[in-house]
Structures are given as C-alpha cells and as structure tokens.
C-alpha cells in the first residue's frame, strides 16, 4: 500500500513538472508576441512550412555555412554558428566580415542548450540535417529551414533570397543578388568560348576520391560559367570512385579538395594507369580549399571559387 | 556381401557428389573471376580480358586489368575463402551453427583496433596493421567466448554474447568517428566491408598469412571431424581436444584478422558458407574446409561484381551485398532449425 502510494506521488510529480515546462514555453511565446507590437511581421515560406517573423532579427543562429555566407553578404553578423567546433572552417573573406561569434557545436548535432542560451530571435537550419529537431528549434526561436547540404547553385541563390526576406532586408538582398549576377557575368566572360576541357572537383582522402558530378553544388557552379563537369550522368552527386573510374571519366582538370596530409593521389603517383589521366598529363591538378569549395556554398564563396578556378586555369 | 556392396555404392555416390561439387564450384569461380575482371565503369569484354592477363603492353585496358581489377579479384578469392574457412572452423569447435567471425565478435574486435589506430595513430604501415588486426580479433573472440561459455554454450547465449560485443564495439567506433570527422567517410565505407580500391600491396600483405592459414586448416581437418562427433568420442579416440580448440581458434584469428585488416568486417560469408558446404559434401572436415574455401571465394567475388551496380559508377561496399544475400538465407536457416 505504502509503496504504490509513493509510486503514484512520483508519477504525479513527473506529470506536473512536464506540464509546467510546456506551460512556461507557451507563456513565454505569448509574452514575446504581445511585447512586439510592431506591424513589421512577415510570414516566410520555407522547406518545412511557414514561420512568422517580426521586426529585424538581431540575434541570428546559423546552422550551416551557406547561411553564414548569406548573412555576411547582407552585412549581418550571426551570434551563433554551427562551425563543427572548428573556427578555421570559416573562410577568411567571411571571417573578416562577421568577426566574433559563439560556436553552437557541429552542424550534424548542434547543441540546443548553447543555442537557447544565446537567446536568438531567428534560427536558420538545413533541411537534410535538422528536420528532426525542427520542433525543438522552433520552441527556442522562430526557425526557417532551407536546403543547404543537398542544394545546387541555383537553390543556393533562392535560399539567399529567403534569408534576406527573413531578416527584413528584402530590397537590399535583391541589390546584392544583382551585384552577384553581374560579377558572375564578368567571371563568365573570362572563360573562353571554345573551352572544351572537362573538370572534376573532388574531395580526396587517404583511401578514395569523392567526385562531385555536374549537378552537385560545386559542379553546377562551374558548369554555370562554361566549365563542363567530367561526370555528366548518374543519380549520385557525390561519387566515391577509384583509379579505374577516374581513368574512365578522364577529366582534363582536377580540383582536389584535400582531406588529410596523405591522400590517395599520392599513392597513385607511381602507377602507370594514373599517367593515362589527362589531368595528370597536362599537369592540371590543383589543390583547393575544401571549406571554400565545398562547405561554404554561398554567394561570396561561389565568387571566390570561380576566381580561384579561373586563376588556376588561365593565369598560371 | 550385399551389405558391403551397398556400403561401397553409397561411398561411391558420396565421392561422386563431392567431386561434382568441386567441379561446379571451380567453374563458378572461374566465371565470377572473369566477370570481376571485365565488369566495371570501364567495360571490357572477355576476350580482351584473357588477352590482357599476360600482356606487356601498356594500354588502358591492360593496365586496368593488371593493376586494378586483378589484385581486387585475387583479394576477393583469398578473403572469401579465408572467412568461409574461419566460419567452418568455428562451427566445428563450438558445434554451434551460429558460430562465425561476425557473431563471435572477431570481426568487430579487429575492426575496433584498426579504426582506433587509423584515426588516432595513422603512422603504421599496412603490414604492421595486420598485427593489430590479430590483436583485435583475439580480444573480440575471447571476450565473446568468455561471456557465452559459463553454464554451457548454446546458440542463444552465443548469439546474445556476440551481438552484445558487436554493439559495444560499434558504439566505441561511432564515438571515435564523431570526434574525428575528417576520417568519417573512409571509415564508414570500410566498416561495411569493402574490397574496392585494393591493390597488389594489399595482396602482398596478406597472402602469406592466408595461405599459411588455409594449409594449417587442412591439417587440422581430421582432428576437427572427430571433435565434431562429441568431446567424449574424440577423447576416447585419443585426441587432445584442448589443443585442437586452441589451434583452431588461433587459425580463426589468423584468417579473419588478416581479412579484416585489408577489407574491413565482411559479414555472412563465414556464417552461411559452411552450412552450404556441409549440405553438399557431408560432415567430414577434410572436405568441408576446401569446399567452404571454394564457395566462399565464389560468393565474395560474385558479391563484389554485384556491388558495382548498386550505385553505378560509384563503388559500394561489398559487405552490403553479402548482407543482402546472407540475411535472408540466415533467416531461412533459423526457421529450419539449422544444423
């Protein structure tokens, strides 16, 4: 009798605690809502529905690098970034623009505690990585979910527009987009009309080559200025391939994003088969920064990628 | 007189069946070997394949076959055979149909040690890594044995102990991967069991170990057969069962460890091939062992060919295919109450 009584009390206490937290949550939101009487509210459509945002968010948490790029273009410094616990992943041109921030952990598993401790008024998350924690993020702050990890170049541009709308800088965003497109035209002009060489951007590790095909972000970006990708079909944007497949695709140029000190390309140096690859014969193997070329996926970084590619291809 | 005649007849049919199995097995092996050399992103027809095997020219086809596909096919044969033999040995000494390097934590143990070394101390050469694989295989196997034996080892206890070990080791491996993101892509692929990207260096590394292991396995076949009749019977016939068990266990560590060192933990080969072998050639290990080797080689090489189609032209881990084939067969065995 006594035992079950205490068990019952225990369960009741748990119930009250849980209910209490929920109520607190809704109360907070309501208070926030009534405090902001501004009529500057807009509804942002995103990958997981629509979110209402009021005013101009000032404390923004970005959970993918492409959003950091977007915010930096708009002159906004995010208060929190999911930087994979490594501030060196933020590329220099963007680091200069945003200055200091608080790391909220890895993009794969950002720390909800740190995020909420920053008291953000806007969170920007990635569809593929964060769709499962969307509800928890929404409890902390208005959250918009866009496609970053699986996006190609065009999608990155439309994500930028959404971000600019969300932070209340829609017109400024349009201006910046115009500037960007102008810059892209300039860069495109630097690629000769008769450029027929195929390129292969790839992450190279100790064991394998992960080639980005024509629909991947980097691939589609290069294609947009006339640099054809060596892989023109296939369902996967990222292909793990061996020497055999590199020989088959036979790129004329390879942009190697090196992951680690020793990569498989070093192992291949002595192999006669590696000599058959055009890129090797033409000495067109260029080491590039993985953070810039693959992780950052944004306006600023895409301009930098193309500048870098053009530099390697035509100025060396 | 009649009885002897029938007995002789049965024996003849038995031998006939065994030789037929070897014959068909070798043909299957030959064809899967041929497919392994010809199928891929760069498709090469059979005639060119055969011509290229001994050619001195340096055309793309010849180079691809000699430098890329041939070592890969040979590794497939060696590792397929070794894992199958390891499984047969384990099922023999434990008299347990579930015994295999995968269930016994041997694969998981070797993988754990290798992942730790690759991520935290990536300075060792291929040849040294094999020793680490042996160490891990031994730790994994012994732990499961220790967990499962008190009170008599039955299939259920073995499966539980093995799965516990496997999950425990997997969680440690996952933890390591999370904190060392740069190595994640490679390690995850390898952990599913993969022989793409292997070259002559890998062959050189494990060939001596595996050949030695296979020869020793044949030598231990006779004692193993007697052991499988029961401890008392074997003891009565003068066998030192303790030594037989220890020697077999060491062979398992040798064969499975070396295989994992190069290709990661490939599952199901060691589990299901011995069952098929026993069905085809009977319970005498002098035949079960070579038959398992043959069928294991056929399975792994064929699985490797199939794995090239999963996400063509990218590579996929061969472990996926062996799991796809082995999983359902394992269920079928379980329902039949396997032997």
From TrEMBL, chain A:
InterPro entries: ABC_transptr_periplasmic_BD, Bact_iron-sidero_bind, Vit_B12_bind_prot. The keyword Transport applies. Keywords: Coiled coil, Signal, Transport. GO terms for biological process: iron coordination entity transport. The keyword Coiled coil applies. It is found in: Cell membrane. CDD domains: FhuD (cd01146). Residues 1-20 form the signal peptide. Residues 170-197 form a coiled coil. It is a lipid-anchor. Belongs to the bacterial solute-binding protein 8 family. NCBIfam families: PRK11411.1 (NF008501), TroA_like (NF038402). This is ABC transporter substrate-binding protein.
């Amino acid at each position: 009798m006594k035992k079950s009584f205490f068990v019952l009390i225990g369960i009741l206490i748990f119930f009250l605690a849980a209910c209490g937290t929920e109520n607190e949550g809704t109360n907070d939101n309501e208070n926030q809502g009534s405090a902001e009487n501004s009529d500057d509210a807009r509804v942002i459509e995103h990958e997981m529905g629509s979110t209402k945002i009021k005013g101009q968010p000032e404390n923004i948490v970005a959970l993918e690098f492409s959003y950091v790029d977007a915010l930096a273009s708009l002159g906004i410094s995010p208060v929190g970034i999911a930087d994979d616990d490594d501030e060196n992943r933020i590329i220099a041109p963007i680091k200069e623009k945003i200055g200091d921030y608080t790391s909220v952990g890895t993009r794969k598993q950002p720390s909800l505690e740190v995020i909420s401790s920053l008291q953000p008024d806007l969170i920007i998350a990635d569809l593929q990585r964060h769709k499962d924690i969307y509800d928890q993020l929404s409890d902390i702050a208005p959250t918009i979910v866009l496609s970053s990890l699986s996006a190609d170049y065009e999608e990155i541009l439309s994500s930028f527009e959404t971000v600019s709308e969300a932070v209340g800088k829609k017109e400024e965003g349009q201006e910046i987009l115009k500037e960007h497109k102008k810059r892209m035209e300039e860069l495109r002009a630097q690629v000769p009309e008769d450029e027929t060489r195929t390129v292969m951007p790839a992450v190279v590790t100790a064991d394998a080559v992960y080639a980005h095909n024509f629909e991947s972000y980097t691939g589609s970006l290069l294609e947009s200025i006339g640099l054809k990708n060596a892989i023109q079909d296939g369902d996967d944007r990222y292909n793990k391939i061996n020497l055999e497949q590199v020989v088959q695709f036979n790129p004329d140029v390879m942009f190697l994003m090196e992951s680690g000190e020793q990569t498989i390309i070093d192992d291949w140096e002595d192999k006669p088969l590696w000599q058959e690859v055009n890129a090797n014969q033409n000495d067109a193997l260029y080491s590039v920064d993985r953070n810039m070329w693959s992780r950052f996926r944004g306006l600023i970084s895409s301009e930098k990628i193309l500048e870098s590619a053009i530099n390697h291809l035509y100025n060396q | 007189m009649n009885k002897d005649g029938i007995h002789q007849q049965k024996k003849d049919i038995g031998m006939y069946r065994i030789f037929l199995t070897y014959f068909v097995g070798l043909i299957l092996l030959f064809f899967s070997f041929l497919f392994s050399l010809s199928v891929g992103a760069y498709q090469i027809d059979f005639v060119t394949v055969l011509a290229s095997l001994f050619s001195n020219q340096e055309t793309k086809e010849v180079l691809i076959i000699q430098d890329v596909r041939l070592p890969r096919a040979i590794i497939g044969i060696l590792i397929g055979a070794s894992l199958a033999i390891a499984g047969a040995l384990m099922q023999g000494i434990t008299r347990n149909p579930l015994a295999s390097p995968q269930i016994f934590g041997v694969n998981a143990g070797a993988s754990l040690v290798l992942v730790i070394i690759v991520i935290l101390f990536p300075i060792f050469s291929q040849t040294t890594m094999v020793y680490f694989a042996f160490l891990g295989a031994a730790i994994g196997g012994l732990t499961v044995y220790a967990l499962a034996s008190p009170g008599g080892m039955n299939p259920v206890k073995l499966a539980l102990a093995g799965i516990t070990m496997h999950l425990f080791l997997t969680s440690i491996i996952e933890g390591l991967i999370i904190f060392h993101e740069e190595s994640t892509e490679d390690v995850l692929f390898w952990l599913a069991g993969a022989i793409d990207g292997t070259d002559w260096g890998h062959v050189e590394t494990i060939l001596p170990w595996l050949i030695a292991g296979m020869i020793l396995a044949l030598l231990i076949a006779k004692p193993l057969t007697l052991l499988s009749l029961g401890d008392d019977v074997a003891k009565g016939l003068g066998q030192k069962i303790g030594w037989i068990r220890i020697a077999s266990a060491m062979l398992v560590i040798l064969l499975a460890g070396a295989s994992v060192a190069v290709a990661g933990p490939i599952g199901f080969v060691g589990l299901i091939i011995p069952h098929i072998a026993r069905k085809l050639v009977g319970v005498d290990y002098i035949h079960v062992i070579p038959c398992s080797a043959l069928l294991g080689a056929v399975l792994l090489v064929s699985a490797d060919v199939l794995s090239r189609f999963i996400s063509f032209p990218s590579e996929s881990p061969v472990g996926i295919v062996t799991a796809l084939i082995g999983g359902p067969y394992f269920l079928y065995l379980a329902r039949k109450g396997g032997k």
